[in-house]
Write a structure and sequence with these properties.
Blueprint (H helix, E strand, L loop, with lengths): L1 E3 L9 E6 L1 H5 L9 H12 L10 E6 L2 E7 L8 H12 L9 E5 L4 H12 L24 E4 L5 H21 L7 H12 L5 E6 L1 H7 L2 H7 L7 E7 L9 E11 L19 H15 L6 E10 L11 E3 L5 E3 L7 H16 L3 E6 L3 H7 L4 E5 L2 H14 L3 E3 L17 E2 L9 H10 L7 E5 L5 E7 L2 E5 L4 H10 L2
Parallel strand pairs: 1-6, 2-4, 2-5, 5-6, 9-10, 9-13, 12-16, 13-17, 14-15
Antiparallel strand pairs: 3-4, 7-8, 8-10, 11-12, 14-17, 18-19
Helix pairs in contact: 3-4, 4-5, 5-9, 6-9, 8-10, 9-14, 10-13, 12-14
Bound molecules: ligand BES, manganese (II) ion and zinc ion.
Length: 486
Amino acid sequence: MIKFQPAAKFNKDGILVLLDEGEVKKRDLAGIPNEGIRQAVRSVIEAGQFQGEEKELFPVVFQKQVILLAGTGDPVRKNFTTLRVIVRQAALSSYFKKVNDIEVILPNDDAVVRAVVEGILIGAYRWDRYHSSSEKPKITPPYAKTYTLAVAAKKEYQDIVTTCEGVTLARDLINGNADDVDSEHIEGVIKDLIKGNENIAVEILNRRDMAAKGLHLHLAVNQGSRKEPKLIIVKYSPQGKTSPYTAFVGKGITFDTGGLNLKPSGHIETMRCDMSGAAAVVGALKNILALHVKRNALFVVALAENAIGAGAYKPGDVFRGYGGKTVEIGNTDAEGRLVLADAIAYVVKNYKPVRLLDLATLTGACVTALGYDYSGLVSNHDEFANEVIAASAKTDDRVWRLPSYPEISEAIKSEIADLKNVGFPKGAAGALTAAEFLRQFVADTPWVHIDIAGTAFVDGRGRLYYGHGGTGAGVRLLTEYLKSGR
Ligand code: BES
Ligand code: MN
Ligand code: ZN
């Protein structure tokens, strides 16, 4: 839990002091009101034990308090991503093992406060629901229950805290077992979020509705599964129903086996993350409601399971989607673009949003191109793309733009159908050809596609300020876009 207090009090059992190299050099300890602590810190600095270098940590014990000095490095060349990393490192450090409440001493600066809040709430997030020991007294960090930042509370700061709750929801949905967090579970989570809200209408298409309406691409992907496919459209109208809508559409493959083009070991184990786009849309929905953002929006999740079995859809077969186009299945593992094609076509036709943004763990090729720290962005509209990029820069929810151009549509032509769901041989430019496939269904709608295949999930000990598992990529971006954008 995060709190704010206007002045440093140094009355908690743990104190985290952020100091840069300049402050250390100048022995600038004016922020420390307690004479005894100030002396203890001064002697550590005078002994040369703490310089304030980036990521440097030094604990000072004063009576019953643990004061952790954390270096933030060069005061001029500020890196706010690194600041989040530093705060995470401190929040998880074993020096705070016996500490319940931490006061954080930090500069009074909006970007710093944002980074510190996110360093704590995103950085110290840990998925431990499946550890038996989680019932027992805490043996793993984060140890502290509250973090009190020594800066006056502001609406903007509270909004950052609220936004992180949507990030946490998305991460919990991603991390839970694929058979628990299935389409019905996600439907339930959405219904709980919107319950009682007068500005909301919801449409839910199940298997039968999809068959009646012709969403045969979505149905094809789910053919091998016992789970119900779902297209859920939450229509949020705080500006009234005649004002324009922005649509967010999330890929929600609750598990991606690859289908008959089965994924091999090493690629299949983390595929419960393949609903991370949908999780981000749900996280953003939670935030937009909690923040009372007054912008009309459509929150859309396309849910299916790409399972293997006797009923599974087959390579080489052709399906006609809701948009009317026929698609040859070149590879059953290129399923995300199929469910998204139907979802996008359905939303564009029936809801006519003025802009549409889709989020998807769409391609391994995007991971090859950009790695794990930047999501790939493809767009048909520079102004919309630039607004999203601005929201990305503000929130540190990183995106990098990749090209979209007319000639690339050659790659997804089929001999036997209007389109095929794979691109060039050997997967050349696979992130671009997948995006191009989606673009075929947006008509003239200004569109941004964000490929979060690399950023949505950490398979390892950690990366940047994210621990193992889902990162909530896209939640802060969507929340900020709607909050500050149009
Ligand atoms: N869900 C995967 C993409 C993915 C890869 C997400 C790694 C997260 C991490 C997607 O459905 C997929 O399998 N894409 C194929 C497409 C190919 C068959 C054209 C891929 O990228 O290999
Ligand atoms: Mn796949
Ligand atoms: Zn997939």
